[in-house]
Structure formats: C-alpha cells, structure tokens
Fold:
Amino acid sequence: MSGIYIHIPFCKQACHYCDFHFSTSMKKKDDMVLALAKEIAMRKIEFEHEIVETIYFGGGTPSVLSNEEINFLIAEIYKNFKVTKKPEITLEANPDDLSSERILELSKSPVNRLSIGIQSFYEDDLKMMNRAHNSAEAKKCLEEATKYFENISLDLIYGIPGMSDEMWKQNIQTALDFGIPHISSYALTVEPKTALSKLIQTGKIAEPQDEAASNHFMILVEILQNNGFIHYELSNFGKENYFSKNNSAYWLGKKYIGIGPSAHSYDGEKRGWNVANNSLYLKSIQENVLPIETEILTVSDRYNEYIMTGLRTIWGVSLDRIENEFGLDYLNYLQKQSKKFLNDDLVSIENNILKPTAKGKFLTDGIASDLFYLNLEE
Structure:
C-alpha cells in the first residue's frame, strides 16, 4: 500500500514560525492546479503495481483551494492510479477557511479526514504567531466540523513564550471538550530566517524555553493518555482506529509520491524532492519535465532513517529487522551505542524491540542521532 501527498504552496499570510515552502500571492493558483494535475499524470508509471491507500493535501494551506479544485485533483488521482476502496483522504485546513457552508460542502466530497491548524485557543498566542484566524473562529469551526466529520485531527503548539502550564492544560482540555480523536502537537521552534527568529533577535518576543516545552510535553502525554489516546508517534496522539494512515505509512517506510513544489517522494530505495520554487515548478511541468532531484539511499542512509522513524513511534526499532535488513555490523553498532541510554533508563529493549522510555521520549531526536551510523563506508 502506498500514499500520494499533494503540496499546495499557498497561504493567506505567513505565520511567524513557519519555514515551509509557500507563497502568499494567489496569482498563479489556477496554473498551479493544472500543473499538479499534469504531474499526477506524468508520474502514474511509478505506481504501476501499487495501490494507493492514502491521499493527503498538505502545504501551505490546502483549504485555500475551492472544493471544485480539490475534487478535480482527487479525480485525477483516481484516473491515473489504482486506489483502494476506502482510502483515507486528508485535507489540511485553517479555521478561517472552514465556514459552516464550506464544511457542509466538504462533507459531500471524497475528503473524509480534516487536519485543522488550531495551534492555540488563546488570542495573544494567535496574534504572536501571525495566524489568520482568531480564537472564536477556532472554536466555531470545530463545533461545525464535528457535526459532519468523525475523523478530525487538530494541531496544537506548546512551549509558547508566556504560556503557563495552566494555560496549556486549558488548551488541551478545549480540544478534548470537542471530542477530537487525534491531536498533533509540536514545540514552538525557532527556524532561521523566519519572522519569529527576527522578532526574538530584536527583543520583541521572548525566546522559547526548553524547560517550559519539556513540562508542556509531559503534561500533554499524561492528559491525553488518561483520556484514552495512544501516543503512537512523538508528536501524534490518536484514539484507537484514528491514527493518521498517511503519516504512519511514512514512519513505517512505505512508498509515497509527493506532488507539487518542494514535495518529497520515496520508493524504498531512493528519495526525491521537487524544486521548491513555484515559477520554476510551473515552467518545468509546462515543458513536460519533472522538476525532481533524486538520491539513491545507501545502506547507512536507510539504517539511519529507520532508527529516526522507529524511535519516534510505538513500533520502535526491531533488532531482528536491523540484523536481517542491514547486517550484523549494524546490529553490533546499535547495541554498543544504545548501552549508555539503556543504563540511564532512556531506552528499553523488550521482545527485541528498542524503544524510548517515558523519561527518554522528549529526548528521542538526540538519542537517535547518537545511534546513527555515520562512519561506515559503503
């Protein structure tokens, strides 16, 4: 089973913390939709023997597209690929795009999962992040969306400067009060060259504190687990049967095609990425040339990716798979490197599966980088 990801590179305005590829000018939106459809057709050969199980509209802000445009792109996928009977079709959306009428329209479309970028229910946080919606819109859209969609995920950001533990608990509680079955939550990170980075450098916004973020993460894990959520990936929590199939496929190393500017693809042996420039992407597609660069992954690359994704999920890192797929050298290296983390109770091994402990979860990315195989020549 495989997935198709479509990157919609447009946003109404730039959030201060974001470093994803997008444009706030909608001038080329019509051309872009046609180019995305053309790329879908140009790449059907890649999944000749695959069945598409998930379709995911990410971005950017996919909800800036009209329902007609979204339905058109879904129809193009069905025209060019074999699609499973009940695929998971996710649309990332912002509250300001989700009016009652829009939600009702979407509920009649093939889209069956919404991923809503709430980030916070506090007005000051939303203004600081330069979000396009306000707190009232966030709540109103969830009220409406839950009438028509069962499968909803929302995003929340923690570690925001000035956010107390109590405020963070209230943010989580508000999400729970709407009966949302999936929550994705991320620490506010300061990426270079973003507006947030400049605002911190000029002293207009305080720098996020690791200790506050760590506390918020622990609070999040405890509250959600007490409310029947499964912490199935470092930043993702879902009720039974509500894990994101699209994201789970990525973490489990399944194949996917990324359509659109800056979108990434993976076929098990090589990784590809489209040019992160709307004009260059459009020009290339119009000239019938795929604007993609690829790299063949070495054994060490694939091992490192498995370590990174495996440690972030409830599925962990299988020592048997390491030995079978990568060889004894890699297994011995992993066992040697993980000793100190085992001794410090940051990871554990059960049934030959290596996983972070509750204490090690927040440190997962750092642990993974210490387990990477950096010096083995192919």
